[in-house]
Amino acid sequence: VLPCGQILAEHLSVPSVFFLRLIPCGLDSEASLCPNPSSYVPRIFTDLTDHMNFFQRVKNLIFDIPNFFLCDFLFQPYAKLASEFLQRDVTVADLLRKASIWLMRLDFVLDYPRPLMPNMIFIGGMNCAHKK
């Protein structure tokens, strides 16, 4: 998930199409402005469902806390690169918000069903073909 292509698209003012699957730290939900509350949407590696009791919701929130610090650390070099190249302060989430279309390759058998925004197109998940 290196946003160098998006930095260049922003500089050239060309539309961008994302074909991504689960950007680290839930950045895809943040950038596309999809609702993603910790009290309702299960986080990855928690083995929780959308029917959680209070303690499971607390566990879900605790699993989400490191993402705030990890994302800033992980994407800080790219935010700095984008700010220098575009000559204005910009974050990676700001760059990803400029997407024209998001092609979401999700599989609701493996992934939790979540709302999609109008510029998001669900294109299906796993392709199971028989090998010869």
TrEMBL record:
Entry GO CC: membrane
Protein name (record): UDP-glucuronosyltransferase 1-5
Molecular function via GO: UDP-glycosyltransferase activity
InterPro entries the UniProt entry points to: UDP-glycosyltransferase (IPR050271), UDP_glucos_trans (IPR002213)
Bilayer topology: Single-pass membrane protein
Pfam families: UDPGT (PF00201)
Organism: Opisthocomus hoazin
Annotated compartments: Membrane
Protein family: Belongs to the UDP-glycosyltransferase family.
Keywords (A to Z) from UniProt: Glycosyltransferase, Membrane, Transferase, Transmembrane, Transmembrane helix
